[in-house]
């Protein structure tokens, strides 16, 4: 840690001594890391907007239809019957987050978190364009209300409101689909007053977050920053200040840090990265670019602030790729491969066969019969002709209706009778097995009970 004496910080960085809001005026960042983050952000924004319109075999790329319990993930449809698979994927996702944070720190926060992308790459950029950099914005906010100030504030907040409404509508398409959304916006508002009111409320929340609450989402609301205090260790990769090389500061010795505080000026949460790991740090790399500029001016090597680990700084290593980080990265790839495998290896159909409740067996001359209800879900993108066969016993199946053809991503429900010869039924409950075939190919087996005398 730095050799300078530090004061214990017992409150969030964006609160003043009286507990009031201390507005953060971040300087507009620039540099190679900022350019890289910009490219990643615009790719993710493009993906976010395009997802509802991308089709795979006629289905959206991603659809989270909670009302109908239908989820489409990369073209694969998950129904309520797939709860086990979804739970398994969720558990693997949680494990992925834990291992990812232990290995790569808060890389997610700085590069791919929606809060960071929208605030830094959309709303702040508009603010820079209209109101100027941090000095101009600070002067404008503290100046009297003039025609110029009213115009700039009205223009900025008007654009913020439009973007918030657009964000709400794009998110809505993720849950109802682009076709349903297009239908809604072409119908009179009077037919959807409740939904319209919810849309305005969510838009107002977005507007409030990105216009006023801002970085407090990261510093006071989001639990991920607090999780890092438990998950990070000395070998985790993070944006960090090389105190071994930088101290003592301000040219009072051999330290490279000039104490110019430029790293603080660009920080979107207003922290001093030189004070070590802090929950407010989102690893956005703005301080890396700013410090590298100063190092270039004074003729010192770049990388005083860089992606590194506490163990690498303390041990004087330039590489952060230790054996543990390599091993965890391999595990992350295995978890991701499992996620993909689970998506592509689901059964083609999901079958449920249950005895019709309230009915007992019926006796014929040489057979006993039971009535069953059957439901089959087609999880493929093809129409499937199906046939139900009795595998475990001799007998006959009589289906209600003549056809068992299921359209792609559709359901089939019916009732059928099973006739089994009397000599084969030796107890009041006999286990029987059915096979579901398509073009003589066995797709699934299902076991249930047959009730006899």
The amount of helix comes to: 40-55%
What percent of residues are in strands? 15-25%
Secondary structure: number of strands: 17
Shape field = elongated
Mean pLDDT over all positions: 87
Blueprint (SSEs and pairs):
Elements: H1 32-50, E1 55-56, E2 59-60, E3 62-65, E4 70-73, E5 76-78, H2 83-104, H3 107-111, H4 114-131, H5 134-141, H6 147-176, H7 178-186, H8 193-213, H9 216-221, H10 224-231, E6 238-241, H11 243-246, H12 262-265, H13 286-298, E7 305-308, H14 310-315, H15 323-344, E8 349-355, E9 362-363, E10 367-378, E11 384-385, E12 387-390, E13 396-399, E14 405-406, E15 411-421, E16 429-438, E17 441-451
Antiparallel strand pairs: 1-2, 3-4, 4-5, 6-7, 8-10, 9-10, 10-15, 11-14, 12-16, 13-15, 16-17
Helix pairs in contact: 2-15, 4-6, 6-7, 6-8
Walkthrough of the structure:
With 453 residues, the chain is α+β, with helices and mostly antiparallel strands. Among the domains are: 32-78 and 113-214, no CATH class; 349-451, Immunoglobulin-like (Sandwich), CATH 2.60.40.10. Helix content is 43%, strand content 19%. The strands form six sheets. Strands 8, 9, 10, 13 and 15 form a five-stranded antiparallel beta sheet that branches. A three-stranded antiparallel beta sheet has the order 3-4-5. It has a three-stranded antiparallel beta sheet with strand order 12-16-17, with no helix packed on it. It is elongated, with a radius of gyration of 31 Å. The model has no long low-confidence stretch (mean pLDDT 87). One of its GO terms (cellular component) is plasma membrane. Residues 248-276 form the 4Fe-4S ferredoxin-type domain. GO terms for molecular function: 4 iron, 4 sulfur cluster binding; metal ion binding.
